[in-house]
User: Fold these one by one.
Assistant:
Number 1:
Amino acid sequence: MWQSETLAIRCSFPRNKQRIAVIAFTCLLGGCTSSPPNSLGLINNLNLANCPDKPNCVVSNADDLAHYIDALDHSGDQQTTRDKLVDVISSMEGGTVTLEESVTMKNAKHNSIYIRAEFQSKWFKFVDDTEFLIEKEKIQVCSAARLGRSDFGVNRERLESIRRAFSP
């Protein structure tokens, strides 16, 4: 009986390897992407959405420390800041601006600029969704992996890299 159990384990192992190989090959060909989540965008023309209950997201208006990241500072006018931010995003590996719009904030005397960008990883083509809300003196930010549970800190580090680009 012990030999037949061992034989069954040996026979199933290559099949599992085949499944893993097919999944990896599919990801390489088609990319590990999906459609952007419905949670992107502003809530009531006021705030970026909160992070889901997964560690692969950071947002400047988070209520918990695990997801919190400071908003970015900027010193120029909103249009100059927008131009610089688009340049920084475009210069980063896999970075693409996918949406820009001017937003009239509730109870505010100024407009804000909303920018959505996607960053695609080089090898497996994983997509991270990143949002920016350029306000008068701050840039509110949110960045989240589209798939999976962990991003190994990639989204936080990407936003810190963008912060360094805005430092004097």
Number 2:
Amino acid sequence: MADNLDRLFSFVGNEEIRDKLAGSRERIGRSFDELFSGYARKAEDVLNEVVYVEDYPGVIRMESITFYTFCEHHFAPFFGTATVAYQPRHVITGIGKIVRLVRDVHARRLQIQELMTRDIAEDMMRVLKARGAYVETRARHLCICSRGPGDDNAMTVVDYGVGTLKDMTGVVAGAVPTPRSVLRSEVIEP
């Protein structure tokens, strides 16, 4: 990793600053180990404490799950919240396990928001054998805030539904239902 960091540091033109960065190698290595630890975890690792039920007719929803991750496109952070809903069949998982699925498995990898949203829903379906799953993520991308368009208020909203919750667009967040869309962006006024 030291060679890779030296190459990264070479982008800093000022020799004095570069010398100061050289002591950061270990700290950056530990940081990356944590930030990208999701590659060593699977959904089965966190959705592992379950309760078996006869036949659960309702929908379970966790809102405002905070996540921080890195965009694989620009290698820049993006962060926001996720809402995860699922309609169980015979298995209910602990609600903290849903938070771990978002934060410890999926957000600890290089991501594209659209794919992360889909993968969380698909994991809920596959591991819990749910009737339906729905995920909505709302995120600010630093590649939009700090470079390029330079818009601090742009919020990207992505939703994905599968099974019985396939058509939940706009319903989970309390908005008026809209035609099914994979990606929509909106500007949030400060």
Number 3:
Amino acid sequence: MQSRSNAVIISKSEVDSQKRGGSLVSISLETRRAFLDDLDKKILRILQEDCRTTREQIAKRLQMSKSAVQYRIKRLERSGIIEGYYAKINPVLAGKNYQAVTLVRAKYSPAYYEKLGERLASLPGVWAVYFTFGDNDFVLLVRGVDRDELLRTVESMTKIRGIERTTSQIVIKTVKEDPRIEI
């Protein structure tokens, strides 16, 4: 394991060694979070606010060189902290006026959550799938142009082998929906 610029880099051989009982302490995504310094966090905040902000603009705001900003962003991308860049689209103006939160109960079997989760995620209109503990196994967020489209999506869920039951709540008004993470 080597440390470079506040990021921990672990080789594949070190991970494989762990699987065979090596002495490296378990590594999780939370470990990565601990290695973000204040400049990394400031860069992430700026990019979350507007991912079109140029490297020059970020450098000027943070009083650093453009190359240092570029290096840090590339490191954040390589480490998986930055997973991509997206446009925030207004679903109502894009014609997806109806939204539902669907709770799914499934039959337990080995690795069922992976198979069913992928199958549920592939359904048209499903934009989020969460595997959960509790009375329900999955929480899905679904969008559609009208009630009929939502109904077709929910009906297609019930046809998937392993799904025992679904319960849907229709969203009347979105009070807050913000994918940004507080850093």
Number 4:
Amino acid sequence: MEDRGRGVCFTAMHIELEKLMRRYLVWQLLGATLLTTACATSTRTTATGSALSSAVQARGEGTIARIYYWRALPGKLDEYTRYIRDVAERIDGEARRRGAFVSVTTYVAQDPASPWTHMRIFILRDSVQLAGLSAALDAAGVAFEPDSVKRRVRGEYSATLRERVGDATVGILH
């Protein structure tokens, strides 16, 4: 009986966490939209060579967004952020050149109470791009590093930096 009670408590806690994440996502997306709109004229270049203003243009091309929520492990926030800039953005750039998605933007939470530290939003043209996103990112990873042993080591390293805490697929209103 005692274990069953813990399971019910855990389930209720999990449901509340999901509700909290959804509410937080709505506010974050609203904030991100306002920020993107306000900064539409700036051109912050990333490692992939894209500009912030291209994210605004891409929003007009996309109909779907695939969102991944990651939490940097304790003491790994800066290291994980560097990993995204030095490795993930280069792989993303290759996948984008191959037509895997329209754009990707990474947001870093400023609130330490947030359930995630990094939110990565991939803008996609349609459900065809959505269906192929994972395979396209994998293929870009192979192009970035053809050596399977080095890819495995890179994957193991990234697992020491962060954990995935959620994902969502949403439609984009135009």
